[in-house]
Amino acid sequence: MAEVVERRGQILEAAFEEFASKGFKGATIKSIAGAAGLQSPALIYHYFPDKEALFNAVLEVHAPMRSTVDDADSLLDLPPGTVLPKIARAYFATASNPTNQRMMRLMVGEAMRRPGVADMLGRATAERGLDFLKSYLSRQVQLGRLRPHDTRSSARAFLGMLIPQAAGMVLFPALLTDGLTDDEHVGAVVEIFLGGLEPER
Amino acid sequence: MAEVVERRGQILEAAFEEFASKGFKGATIKSIAGAAGLQSPALIYHYFPDKEALFNAVLEVHAPMRSTVDDADSLLDLPPGTVLPKIARAYFATASNPTNQRMMRLMVGEAMRRPGVADMLGRATAERGLDFLKSYLSRQVQLGRLRPHDTRSSARAFLGMLIPQAAGMVLFPALLTDGLTDDEHVGAVVEIFLGGLEPER
DNA sequence: TCTTATATATTGAACGATCAATCAAGGGAG
DNA sequence: CTCCCTTGATTGATCGTTCAATATATAAGA
């Protein structure tokens, strides 16, 4: 062998790939060992107690996922005309990343069978996306840049408007057959959103 | 036994339940037979050639799913202030139906592994939801009730705005912890959408 | 109507394949 | 010699599927 490799990481990466494409039940210890280049599946049990633990380890490794907005607080006082497009583009960038796409497929595929995964996924988008948006939008209402309204709805609305396009990248290419580009969609969506929430009339 | 039951339908229903909660790989012929009240898994093979065929039969049975909007064409000329809330409420009603929820879980869970299922799901929402919205919104632009804009974006936007709330019902309860009701959301969303697309003043 | 023949429904048992997991032994580095 | 890494072989369980045998229903013949 050319070099001493980090076996554990090697196994984790192969398991990530296998779990994402075949699901927990569909991926076998043997197939993971094969994908990792091991000569025997037994080696996996030297690094992980069992298949379940390997799965959880995979989840932990890739759990962070590039956050949609990493410099959250610094955006709080900036005007929505610049912040919302920024958020939307960051969202699409996250959805375009192949590793994130695999992670999404992995989690969505297992979320039905594993309440913990569903919770992880739900909580991630809720806390990382919706909660920030809620407080940001509330702040903008406070500043008089948006008219008073229920930010629970507007936060869902803004994030939601991006979902069909993002889902098209990750899961359902059929949604993108009309050729609308991400940038076009961001522009149109922000315009609708801000037009619908502008202060006075 | 009390009555002569339709074995085939009985098996299909049990298989639906099992596939939806455990996935294709997770559901076993034996567990399906048990859920259907059969004394032997062998009987399943009298009605279906194999597990794969049983799965496809389940998909076919429940494929229709109550359409979001059944009287589509009659809505084309009605004003968006009445049509959009109607669509939104129909959407939430579909998402609240327990059978539809199971079907969604089944399809979403298998969509990762089965391109055919992903296509079915993507095409269903695209053709049944987006395409109608696109033509409806275009018609409303034509009538001067909405300002000219790219209806590929606005169709995505309107449907998307509903998704976080619907996803909360079906998969991720964590999204609904702030207690926003469906009706509140429909009202707020329609207001934002129409405000953002109202004709020039 | 009673019996017989035929087709369908249902069953328990069994098959080979494959799974996750175990184990004792080999191999190389220090 | 010692310790950790790695391996091939193997275990018992469970999987989808098959099969021969039985039960039940339907139809025909006398």
Throw out a few tags for this protein.
9 helices; 201 residues; DNA-binding; homodimer; mainly alpha
Describe this structure in words.
The structure is a homodimer of 201-residue chains. With 201 residues, the first copy, chain A, is mainly alpha-helical. Helices cover 69% and strands 0% of the residues of chain A. In chain A, α6 (98-111) crosses α7 and α8 packs antiparallel against α9 (182-197). The termini of chain A are far apart. The first copy, chain A, binds a DNA duplex (30 and 30 nucleotides) through residues 7, 28-30, 38-43, 45-46, 50-51.
Summarize the SSE layout with pairings.
Two copies of one chain form a homodimer.
Chain A: H1 7-26, H2 29-35, H3 44-47, H4 51-62, H5 80-96, H6 98-111, H7 115-142, H8 151-170, H9 182-197
Helix pairs in contact in A: 1-2, 1-4, 1-6, 5-8, 5-9, 6-7, 7-8, 8-9
The structure holds a DNA duplex (30 and 30 nucleotides).
